[in-house]
Amino acid sequence: MAEWSPAVLAHFERPRGAGRPDGAVAFRHGRGGWVKKGAVVELWLRCEQERVVEARYEAYGCPATIASASWLCEYLSNRPIEQARALTGLDIAGALALPPEKIGVALIAEDALKQALDGDKAPSAAL
Amino acid sequence: MSEHVPYLDNAATTPLDPAVWERMRACLEEGLFGNPASAHSYGVAAAQAVESARAQVAAAIGAEPGEIVWTSGATEANNLAVLGIARANAKRGKHVISVRTEHKSVLEACARLEQEGFEVELLAVDRDGRLPPERLAATLRPDTVLAAVMLVNNETGVVQDIPAIAEHVHAVGALLHVDAAQAAGRLSVDVNLLGADTLALSAHKVYGPKGIGCLFRRRRLRRRIAPLMWGGGHEDGLRPGTLATHQVVGMGAAFERIHACQAEDRRRAEAYRQRMLTAFAELGGVVLNGRADGVPHILNVAFAGVHGEALTASLGGLAVSQGSACSSASGSPSHVLRAMAVPDQLAAASLRLSVGRFTREPEVEAAVERIRGAVQRLRAFSPLWQAHRRGASLSALYQQPVAEALAHG
Ligand SMILES: Cc1ncc(COP(=O)(O)O)c(C=O)c1O
Questions:
Q1: pTM (predicted TM-score)
Q2: Is B383 in contact with A60 (Cβ distance < 8 A)?
Q3: Residue-wise pLDDT tens digits, B76-113
Q4: Residue B344 contacts residue B323 (beta carbons within 8 Å)
Q5: B383, A18: Cβ pair inside 8 Å?
Q6: Which fold has domain A6-117?
Q7: Which CATH number covers residue B86?
């Protein structure tokens, strides 16, 4: 079994921002990943005045997938949208010290982020 | 280990029964060190212990002592039967039949036969893991020399209809090998009722020691099995090497205990299985991999909506198998669940829970509690599970047909 970094374990055991928001209508939504590949991340962002004020997620995947979504939501809270836009999956992978074979799940979190920020222009993934 | 970790992995291996250990200890301590093949009194004493163990194992499966060949375990017994029968009968034909859900020690031996020029057909099973005997009948040919079908599947507990299969196999003059490693002690195993020509057993699945097993082979097959090893002609020339007397004695004692323990073992396993089935039915979205009439000590269930790796990481070291102890080392999806058309993602989120003679209720309760907690926690933020709650079928989520979840009440 994979050995996880303390950062992954901390997010996996106590995820932040887990669960779809109640009034999801006020949120921008993005999705990344595929069930058959074993990782799906859904992201909801509530933005006010060019800032992300709340970020929530749902995730299906290994501990690294869940940790990536959780880390992302923690990072995004109260962040200028400019900065959110600049974030990449590699940044997430670095922050969580993901092993090389798990970098893909951080890219899936990035896909969900891009889609939430850019709407239809981002790559989309069907369930 | 400081904290007691619930052990629900008795299909992987069982702890030694103290009564078995007592006999093995006595054997090691009390000067039974002689070589059972020696003619002097030391050898004769050891040989007597070996022969009495042979009689014990034979009695447990309705065989004659002379029909038991000691091996290092069921892996070797399966190899000896599959390779040995095919090679010794190659002049008659080179067609061999087995099943996709067999243990690797049968499948890999079959793969070896293919390299040697045999034609091996691996039959598909139904979604519930059963091989319809007619499917096997339709594959038999005049040049079929061997069919290898297990009695109880080690991952799912599914029981094959060996007596019906034996009839078909014998009708074309072929031989039937049965891997009964998971059946002994759980079902009554009688070689005559089953119609097996050869049958593999292992001691460590039945509260005996690891490293010892045997192959039952009918008396008339003496010359129809080729050995795998060459040496001093022990075990009728089928399996050379000095016997490990204490191991053999341990296997004999373990099989002798079956008679006294089987009814109670079964009653307990059935109660635990029912307890787990009820808890998982209440949880919802739990799919049985196998059949309701499988052996009670093995329960294989898939937890929809959660990821396999996230599930294992949440179980806090609970001693259960994900799919199978044998295949989880390689990280690849279980070949058994794949043969039953379980979607790979659901197969990875499956647990095999296997109880045994020394399992007690608090262990089962603790395991159920941990599994329930982990599944509920992961499902709360799983997009798959949330979509299922909103009405999406499991088949739609996994984009592949999924069997009905356990129903409650
Ligand atoms: C069905 C089955 N056959 C064969 C074996 C191999 O047995 P052994 O460990 O004695 O080699 C096992 C156990 O791993 C098994 O479950």
A1: 0.94
A2: yes
A3: 999 999 999 999 999 999 999 999 999 999 999 999 99
A4: no
A5: no
A6: Sufe protein. Chain: A (3.90.1010)
A7: 3.40.640.10
